[in-house]
Amino acid sequence: MLPLVIYVVDIHGIIRHVFNSQFRTSRHVKEAIEQIKKMD
Q1: Does the pLDDT value for residue 14 go beyond 90?
Q2: CA geometry: angle at 11 spanning 34 and 32, to 5°?
Q3: DSSP of 7-26, one letter per residue?
Q4: Which of 1, 7, 9, 35 is most buried, judged by most C-beta within 10 A?
Q5: pTM above 0.90?
Q6: Quick check: 3 pLDDT over 90?
Q7: Which of 21, 12, 20 is nearest to 39 (CA)?
Q8: Number of neighbours of residue 21 by Cβ within 10 angstroms
């Protein structure tokens, strides 16, 4: 099984967070949302 990778990218195209996990995929969305809220 390949890992799921989520990138949080700001409006300037800068990668602000990378979440990479093969086994904690349920955590991906929650962590991505937390990082997006921090950018506001």
Answers
A1: yes
A2: 20
A3: EEE-TTS-EEEEEEESS-TH
A4: 35
A5: no
A6: no
A7: 12
A8: 14
Phi, then psi, of 26 in degrees rounded to 5: -70, -20
**Burial grade of 28 (CB within 10 A; 0-12, 13-18, 19 or more):** middle
Per-residue pLDDT of 22-40, as tens digits, reads: 777 677 788 888 888 988 7
Predicted pLDDT of residue 15: 95
* Alpha carbon separation from 17 to 1, 29, 30 (Å, rounded): 22, 12, 13
First to last CA, the chain: 34
Contact present, 4 and 28 (Cβ < 8 Å):
yes
